[in-house]
Amino acid sequence: MKALKGTYDGERIQLEGNPQLPKDSKLIVILLDDESADWNEVSSQSLNKAYGEDEPEYSLSEVKEPNPDYESR
């Protein structure tokens, strides 16, 4: 599943970045009234689906191969 941004001009939905979608692609359109608040809620719900209630916590010492592109904060 991919998340794509776009706008509605009154006639058509215009997706940002000109994504190449196969013909007859199935889409779900979510109207965002307050883009930042709603987008954060949708993202949070999707992230919550990725992890179970009993998901273990992993410490940094348990990571076998660190990602050099990750900037710790």
What does this molecule look like?
With 73 residues, the chain is an alpha+beta fold. The protein is 22% helix and 8% strand. It contains 1 helix and 2 strands; from the N terminus they run ββα. The protein has one helix at 35-50, and strands at residues 6-8, 13-15. A two-stranded antiparallel sheet has the order 1-2. The longest helix has 16 residues, at 35-50. The chain is elongated and about 55 Å long.
Can you give me a brief rundown of this structure?
The chain is an alpha+beta fold.
Integer-rounded radius of gyration: 18 Å
Could you give the distance between the termini? 29 Å
Mean pLDDT: 81
Global shape: elongated
Low-confidence parts:
none
What order do the helices and strands come in, and which of them pair?
Elements: E1 6-8, E2 13-15, H1 35-50
Antiparallel strand pairs: 1-2
Protein traits:
single chain; about 70 residues; alpha+beta; two-stranded antiparallel sheet; 1 helix; about 10% strand; elongated
